[in-house]
Amino acid sequence: MPHLPERGGDVLAVGGGAVVGGGFNVVAAAARQGADVALASPVGTGPWGALVRAALGAEGVTVLTAPADGDTGLVLTLLEPDGERTFVTTVGVEGRPRAAELAAVPAQPGDVVYVSGYDLVYPAAAPVVSAWAAGLPSGVRLVLDPGPLAGEIDAAVLGPVLARCDVLTLNAREAMLLAGAGGDGRADGGAVPTDGAPQAGADVSPAALAAVRGLVPGSCSVLVRVGERGCWVSEAAGAPARRVPSQPTRAVDSTGAGDAHTGILAAALLAGVPLPDAVRRANLGAALAVTRPGPATGPTRAELDAFANS
């Protein structure tokens, strides 16, 4: 659309359509890298759920949950000419996970588990997912992406997940939201020295990095994505935060950029790739993803390899 409508107004969009997105963007991005991926979120029995199930099957993603009565939720994405996007979300069956099904997920040491911040906002899902994530077995690497609603996650829900978190990945806006919500709920992370401290032009401040760092255990790695500039990485408490660069591209649609980054990152970590190299690969994958319209635009492993070597 040419611009967002004003309150109470309307705007004529250039086009529109229905595609599978949301958490699918992440699992599809990981699967396209050759990872063995399974989904532990409920999928509905209505028309939207059928679309989701078909899309997951096409990507080779296993669904661990039984079909849930009702339909999968819907996200309205408003896309502007510069590639920026705005969302309106309605919650479906994915907002009502079953504790018994999560408890049956066969997570084992060496696995990577991704948790979305949306699951920590939905009223029925938040306590269930928080308790499950906090109790994951030792040796399972937990990757948390708080997402656009980071500032709306209740501290009682977020705290246990942050305390168990192995990799916290978020964009600069979300880092500012979490930094402002830090308060007294900090763990033992401490301040972050920076190697070439990010300035205002880098879209994230050293103070925000330090505040987010202080919310997680010292062993947790913190990633702050800054678009075409790449990603700031603090591997552990006391280690300098370093910016891992990306490769600038012409953005067509940034809807699934963060999801592609997280999915590719998780796949690389699962394959045993060291964190800095995994972040570098995720940066390039996200840079390639924004050149394509749609939400689930994470590249295949072959496409990403070719882009990295170009």
Which structural traits does this protein have?
UDP-N-acetylmuramoyl-L-alanine:D-glutamate ligase, six-stranded mixed beta sheet, 32% helix, 10 helices, 310 residues, alpha/beta, single chain, 10 strands, two-stranded parallel ribbon, globular
Topology:
Blueprint: H1 23-31, E1 38-39, H2 47-59, E2 62-63, E3 74-79, E4 85-90, H3 99-103, E5 112-116, H4 126-134, E6 141-145, H5 155-164, E7 167-171, H6 172-180, H7 206-213, E8 221-225, E9 231-234, E10 242-244, H8 257-270, H9 275-289, H10 301-308
Parallel strand pairs: 1-2, 5-6, 6-7, 7-8
Antiparallel strand pairs: 3-4, 8-9, 9-10
Helix pairs in contact: 1-2, 1-8, 4-5, 6-7, 8-9
Domain Carbohydrate kinase PfkB: 21-297
Organism: Georgenia yuyongxinii
GO molecular function, one term: kinase activity
**Helix percentage range:** 25-40%
Top-tier CATH class of the domain at 97-308: Alpha Beta
Average pLDDT, rounded to a whole number, is 90
Helix-strand pattern = HEHEEEHEHEHEHHEEEHHH
Structural class comes to: alpha/beta
- Low-confidence spans: 182-202
CATH 4th-level superfamily of the domain at 97-308? Ribokinase
Largest β sheet strand count, sense and barrel closure: 6 strands, mixed
Alpha-carbon Rg, integer: 18 Å
Distance between the termini: 33 Å
Shape: globular
CATH architecture of the domain at 97-308: 3-Layer(aba) Sandwich
Organism: Georgenia yuyongxinii
Domain Carbohydrate kinase PfkB: 21-297
GO molecular function: kinase activity
InterPro entries: PfkB_dom, Ribokinase-like
